[in-house]
Amino acid sequence: MNWKDKLNLLQCIASDLLIIHSHDLIHQDLHSGNILQDSLKSAYIADLGLSIAANIALKSKSDGIYGILPYIAPEVLKKQVYTKESDVYSFGIILWEILYGIPIPFEQKSELQFQLQVCKGYRPHIYENTAMCYSDLMMKCWNIEPEKRPTAKEIVDIFEEWQNNENILSELAESDKKLQIVKNESAHLYIDSHYKSSIISFNNSHKYQGN
Question: Which of 5, 24, 29, 47 is catalytic?
């Protein structure tokens, strides 16, 4: 796919997220398995079974969460409530997967260890030669401070601008050529069960003490 088509797909996904958020809802289980395509030029967010009104989410409490661990925002792993900003973090992981064309690397050795790493700032590796505009957007979506992440509306506007910017399209295409070797060499163990939503328990005996 060329980058104009990729950006169109990303804009479709971001537009669906904007619609969800504009109804004051939070998806809560946004990952690539819940993105459906009916062609190479359109995509939709599916499976809103866990969606919840933002005002209800603020009052909810739980000893665990449901989802796929690498897509879950650090504040949620620290037992804070899901927010629209948590959905944006998950969207940032989808950005990574679309860029590199592979599932997010995740070997489920220890859920607690992974949670602690994410809360301390661990994020998926951004390879050298990645287009700066794209890596900047991913890192903004992954910001440790939720209020500093872009809104769904801001993301939609960014993709609309990029699709009509020949300099950006050229930068992304050039980056793709340089990353092709990385993509071919980045095969990793893929265990299907690791990429399905499941209950993730909080370890109440291990309180996160980070900055």
Answer: 29
